[in-house]
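Narrative of accomplishments. A recurring question from our advisory board has been how the design workflow behaves on a single, concrete structure rather than in aggregate. To address it, we present the structure tokens for one chain from the evaluation set, followed by the sequence designed for it. No filtering or post-editing was applied between the two.
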């Protein structure tokens, strides 16, 4: 989507287009430009953040990632030396107080092309990282999740035995339990909607269920969710 030009972002051409969220900052850490995708992800309008320090807008506090969001950030230090920064995940706060995980990429303008502004490109990976965290450690060799002997921790403990699910099927089941629809699952897993629909269909067939709700209920009783 097109970048929203502002007086303070004249050094970034309006021909630059991206579907990712994007903002730029100068050497003083102040935001110079904030595009429409950034507005959608964080809820902040361009006029609300331009001119503010980037870490005051984004920082969730207590972020334990490789790159911390503060006045002494690695990105600014690397930029001053003409170095790029490898993409990284960052926990950020939205206007309604939610914490989102974004994956950030950094782009530096060529040296000598006016005052150096650092371009930040990012996308929301909150749901994707949650799925990865849930499924990490549940997969055995060969990419198959060994889930058939798990039980719930409620007072009504059960011992439902289910067929072994692949890691992908396990991810799909947990996303269904989180209320995600086909398009949501496709976006989170970075696959086509048709592929997501096929994964769901195969999951239902393997579990012997007639509906997504039934699959979630069965998975819950078996302690998979």
């Amino acid at each position: 989507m097109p970048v929203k030009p502002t007086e303070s972002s004249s050094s970034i051409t309006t021909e630059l287009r991206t579907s990712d969220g994007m903002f730029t900052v100068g050497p003083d850490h102040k935001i110079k430009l904030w595009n429409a995708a950034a507005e959608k992800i964080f809820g902040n309008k361009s006029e609300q953040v331009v001119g503010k320090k980037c870490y005051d807008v984004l920082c969730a506090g207590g972020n334990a990632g490789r790159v911390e969001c503060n006045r002494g950030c690695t990105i600014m230090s690397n930029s001053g030396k003409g170095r790029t920064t490898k993409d990284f995940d960052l926990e950020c706060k939205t206007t309604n107080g939610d914490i989102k995980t974004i994956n950030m990429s950094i782009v530096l303008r060529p040296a000598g092309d006016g005052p150096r502004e650092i371009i930040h490109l990012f996308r929301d990976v909150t749901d994707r990282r949650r799925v990865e965290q849930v499924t990490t450690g549940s997969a055995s060799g060969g990419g198959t999740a060994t889930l058939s002997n798990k039980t719930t921790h409620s007072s009504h403990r059960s011992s439902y035995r289910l067929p072994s699910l692949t890691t992908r099927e396990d991810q799909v089941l947990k996303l269904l339990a989180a209320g995600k629809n086909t398009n949501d699952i496709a976006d989170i897993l970075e696959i086509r909607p048709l592929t997501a629909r096929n994964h769901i269909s195969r999951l239902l067939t393997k579990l012997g269920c007639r509906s997504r709700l039934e699959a979630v209920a069965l998975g819950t009783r078996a302690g998979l969710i």
